[in-house]
Structure formats: structure tokens, C-alpha cells
TrEMBL record:
Signal peptide: none annotated. Residues 110-288 form the D-isomer specific 2-hydroxyacid dehydrogenase NAD-binding domain. Pfam families: 2-Hacid_dh, 2-Hacid_dh_C. One of its GO terms (molecular function) is glyoxylate reductase (NADPH) activity. Belongs to the D-isomer specific 2-hydroxyacid dehydrogenase family. Keywords: Oxidoreductase. PROSITE patterns: D_2_HYDROXYACID_DH_3. InterPro entries: D-isomer_2-hydroxyacid_DH, D-isomer_2_OHA_DH_cat_dom, D-isomer_DH_CS, D-isomer_DH_NAD-bd, NAD(P)-bd_dom_sf. The keyword Oxidoreductase applies. Residues 13-319 form the D-isomer specific 2-hydroxyacid dehydrogenase catalytic domain. This is D-glycerate dehydrogenase. GO terms for cellular component: cytosol. The lineage of its organism: Bacteria, Bacillati, Bacillota, Bacilli, Bacillales.
Length: 319
């Protein structure tokens, strides 16, 4: 008998058909709605594997309910939606999708940095709303990117890819990280910094660390106060790393200059969230890895990982 797999969101047919060669598949058929909790619990009662999205909480309740479960294949590089300790205790393998999304997410991070600095969204709206009367010396002036100082919090794959882009813009790049990366420092000409100095000296600060409870609200009131008045904060990692109330206060009082946010403490963020009302913030709906090619690669890797485990082989990218 083929092993059973539940997929928590509609994936492209060719990918599902590939999984079907070795597994029996059930899938939540919606693209824009997460699977409701009760449906997830019901559908995963007797499965061997789950393909999950970052919007699904896969915790002890799911594991207790799903007695045959052997593998959870998450279609994301981040896996903070999965209780890894509970999975490990039960011998359940968890896989993610590193590497395939690195460059695409770095592109989006840099795009957000540039659009926040140069007020791209605001300028486009200004024109569309018919406000443009004439060219004017100080109209919609923003901040320079070239030659400025970038502080990257986290020097993993995406941090390195962002640093590479920044060097192309002649930026001075500093990073803070749990461990120093001398080979990257040498390769890219970037420097290690304490967190405090990074916050104090950077014109742009990009958050690129994985989320776990230890880094909850790593950027709060004190850290925002340490930043320059001209600083721009970019978060394409996870919303919980930034204290949104403190960020709102800092942006409103202009104690920092602007922010570009692709992620929020609660997603989807409500359209009446105070941060969305500020002119000095650009907000995106968690699209860091959202290019057609990359999302297909992520889906393929997710499918490959689950079929490998369920046919008795080693997954390509276990957590
Ligand atoms: C991930 O894979 O963790 C990203 O946040 C998805 O874009």
C-alpha cells in the first residue's frame, strides 16, 4: 500500500502528480485560504507525511493526532511554525527548503531597501493621485543608497547574498551574527560588529535571522532608540523579531526615518494595523521568495524531500 500524504495548500499539478507516483495524496484545494485547524487535524489522522506551509502550526497536537506520521516537509526555509523538539522526540523527520530561495529573497530585501529609501511607492501614488504639478528641487527626496552604511543582522545564506548586492552599490557593510564568518568578511570585504555598534552606525539595517523565541522582539524600544534618526529598518525575516508597537512609535515620532516590512507579528496583517497608516513605511504581504521560478523550485524540493523519506531514503534538506 502506498504511504499517505496530506498537502495543506494547492500545489501545481505536475508536482502533485510526481508525489502521486509513490504516495496516496489528499490536498487542501484552496490557494488563498489556509487550511482550517479542524480540517488539518481530521485530514492528517492517518497520514505518513504532511507537506506544510509556513502558515500551518505543526505542534504536539498534530503529532499526537497523527499516529503514523513520519515526515513533515515544510515549503519554506523558516520552520518556526513547527515544534522541532516535539517532532524530534517522536522521531518525525522535518525538512525545509534552503538554498533555492536565497537569491530571490535577497533581491526582494534589496528592492524593499531601495524603495523605502527612495520613496518609490509614495512617489507612484503621488503621481497617480494627480498631485504632480511641476518638477521641484526637494520634491519626494529620499536617502542615498550608494556609499551608505548597511548593518545586516544575521550572516546566513540570505545575509551573504544581500551583502554581495550592497557591495555593488559601494555600501560599507557590517554584520552581527552569533558567530563570526571570517571567510565571508574576506571574500566580500565586510566587517563584524557588535549589535550595539551596528544599530548606532547603520543607515540601513536588514534583519535576516531565523525566528525562535530567543529573538522575539530583538528589536524593541531600546534598540530603535539606539538607531540614527536617518535609519531605515528592513525586515524580510519574521515579524516576531520586531516589537511592532515600539516600531510604530519610533516611525511616528521620526526617531527613525523609515521601514520596509515584508513580515508581521500576525499574518495576514490586518488592513487597519497602525503601521499601515504611516507614510514612511512600505509594507508587503510576505513575498520574499515569491518569484515563479523560486516558488516552483521550493515546491519541487518539498515534494522530493517527502517522497524520499516515504520511500526509505534520506531527504535532501533535513532540518
Ligand atoms: C521562508 O521560506 O521562510 C520564507 O519566509 C518564505 O518566503
Amino acid at each position: 500500500m502506498k504511504p499517505k500524504v496530506y498537502i495543506t495548500r494547492k500545489l501545481p499539478d505536475p508536482i502533485v502528480n510526481k508525489i502521486k507516483l509513490s504516495c496516496h495524496v489528499n490536498m487542501w484545494e484552496e490557494e488563498d485560504i489556509s487550511v482550517p485547524r479542524d480540517v488539518l487535524l481530521n485530514e492528517t489522522k492517518d497520514v505518513d507525511g504532511i507537506i506544510s506551509m509556513l502558515t500551518d502550526t505543526i505542534d504536539a497536537e498534530v503529532f499526537d493526532n497523527s499516529r503514523n506520521l513520519k515526515v513533515v516537509s515544510n515549503m519554506a526555509v523558516g520552520y518556526n511554525n513547527i515544534d522541532i523538539e516535539e517532532a524530534t522526540d517522536r522521531g518525525i523527520i522535518v525538512t525545509n527548503t534552503p538554498d533555492v530561495l536565497t537569491e530571490t529573497t535577497a533581491d526582494l530585501t534589496f528592492a524593499l531597501l531601495m524603495s523605502t529609501a527612495r520613496r518609490i511607492v509614495e512617489a507612484s501614488e503621488y503621481l497617480k493621485e494627480g498631485k504632480w504639478k511641476t518638477w521641484s528641487p526637494m520634491l519626494l527626496t529620499g536617502r542615498d543608497i550608494y556609499g551608505s552604511t548597511l548593518g545586516i543582522i544575521g550572516m546566513g545564506r540570505i545575509g551573504k547574498a544581500v551583502a554581495k548586492r550592497a557591495k555593488g552599490f559601494d555600501m560599507n557593510v557590517f554584520y552581527s551574527n552569533r558567530s563570526r564568518k571570517p571567510e565571508i568578511e574576506k571574500e566580500l570585504g565586510i566587517s563584524y560588529s557588535t549589535m550595539e555598534d551596528l544599530l548606532k552606525n547603520s543607515d540601513f539595517i536588514c534583519i535576516l535571522i531565523p525566528y525562535n523565541p530567543e529573538v522575539h522582539h530583538l528589536i524593541g524600544e531600546k534598540e530603535l532608540e539606539t538607531m540614527k534618526e536617518s535609519a531605515i529598518l528592513i525586515n524580510t525575516a519574521r515579524g516576531g523579531i520586531v516589537d511592532e508597537r515600539a516600531l510604530y512609535k519610533a516611525l511616528r515620532s521620526h526617531s527613525i526615518w523609515g521601514a520596509g516590512l515584508d513580515v508581521f507579528e500576525e499574518e495576514p496583517v490586518s488592513s487597519d494595523h497602525p503601521l499601515l497608516s504611516l507614510p514612511n513605511v512600505i509594507t508587503l504581504p510576505h513575498i520574499g521568495s515569491a518569484s515563479e521560478k523560486t516558488r516552483l523550485k521550493m515546491a519541487e524540493l518539498t515534494a522530493e524531500n517527502i517522497t524520499l523519506v516515504l520511500t526509505g531514503k534520506k531527504p535532501l534538506t533535513p532540518v
